[in-house]
Every structure is written in C-alpha cells, then in structure tokens.
Design brief:
Length: 264
Amino acid sequence: MQMRDFGDRLRHWRERRGFSQLALAAAAGSSQRHLSFLESGRTGPSRDMVLRLSAALDLPLRQQNAMLLAAGFAPAWRESDLAAPALGPVNAALDYMLAQQEPFPAVVVDRRWNLLRANRGAGRLVEFLTGPAPAAPPAGTRVNMAEWLVSPQGLRPLLANWDEVALHFLRGVQADALADGTQETADLVARLLEFPDVAALTEHAPLDEPPGPVLAMHFRKGGAELRLFTAIATLGTPQDVTVQEIRIEAFFPADAATEQFFRR
C-alpha cells in the first residue's frame, strides 16, 4: 500500500511538472522501464532513488519528506522551530537584514504569508496607515499578510491601486500552490478567493499601455500618498524545511516623496 501511494505521488508530480516518463528517467539517471514500475507499484524505490527523483522534479523539502514517507523511509530533512538553537545563525541573519532595511519597512513571513517578524519601519508604516498596532493576537494565531492585503478590514481601503496589487499577489499565491502542492497553500488560495471582488480579479482587462518596471503599492491616506515596491528574498542552500520556507520582503520607496516620508 505504501509503495502504491509512492507511485501515485510520483506520477502526480511528474505530470504536474510536465515530464514524460522518459524525460524524468533520464534526469534522475534511471530507465523509463524502471520508472514505469515505480509508478505502477511493481517495484519499490531505494531511498537514494526517491531523493534523485525528488531533485529532478525540483520538489520542496517538505514534499521530498512526504515522498520518502510514502516509500517507507524516514524523512531526510528536519523541520525546526524558528526559535531552535540550531537556527541561531539564521535568526541572526534575519535580524541583520531587517535592521539594514531601516528606515524602510521589512518583514519576515513563512511560506503561507504568516507574519513572523517585522522591523521598526514596518511598524511605523502600519501605525500611519491603520493607527496604533493592536494588542498581540491570541496565542496560536498570526497575522496573515495575504489576507490583510485583500481584506476590506485590512489594507484594501488604503490602496489606490488595490485591484492591480491584489491580482498580482493572488497570482503569486496560486503559483505557490502549484509549486508546493500542499493543502495549506491551496486552502490559503481558497480563503483569498472568498473575500469580496477577489475572484473577479482573474477577469482583469488587458493593460492599455506598457507597465512600468515594477508594480508599486500606492497607499493613500488623507492628504498623504506613499508608493512602495518590494523585493522578496529567500535563504540559499536550505537543508531545513522551516529555513526553505522563510521569505524576507523588503519595501523600497518608488519616488522621492515616499523616501523623504520614511527618512523623516
């Protein structure tokens, strides 16, 4: 039963990544016949073969572990708590990047856009837009940046170009769901589509003129206007599921007035 489950997973990811059996076998250093036997459950894979196929399919570490478990092996990649001592150097690097981004905002999020930490620039931006930060959320809950962006109770009323920004972000989360294949990311897409007008964004009309080099978020509150674009970074050569799924989003001013606002 385990081997059949592995075969189903292997076929699912092969088709999802657009590989033929022959192409995947060549990429993994195997034969089409052997791959066919693996998918049908006639042959069980070795641990090394699972890892080779996972690498050829460019599977995230979380999905590599799932493939190993389905084949009857222990996971190869650990998933540490971000506060674990082993991730001390990672935490130091994250704190350094957040500090270096001052006075401009920067946040650290997980794979599903749950906020993990933020610098003072981000705090000042939130306070300007929505007022003093609310009390800490109940234990076990987190601020979800994706939901905050599209929600009428979040940033939507403050974004002059909400439809453009929300559409771009929605497509990014949908791409994440296709890439990582987890139910959690698929659930996030479903939640986003339940917010008013979000599903209709997929019918967005073509652009009338060529877009600029980046899509800036155009915030408007009272007489103040802020334009910010973002850069998203990940940590290189991850060997831990948590580390691979971390993202650092840094915000940069898109015009001189916004830069002056933050420097003041």
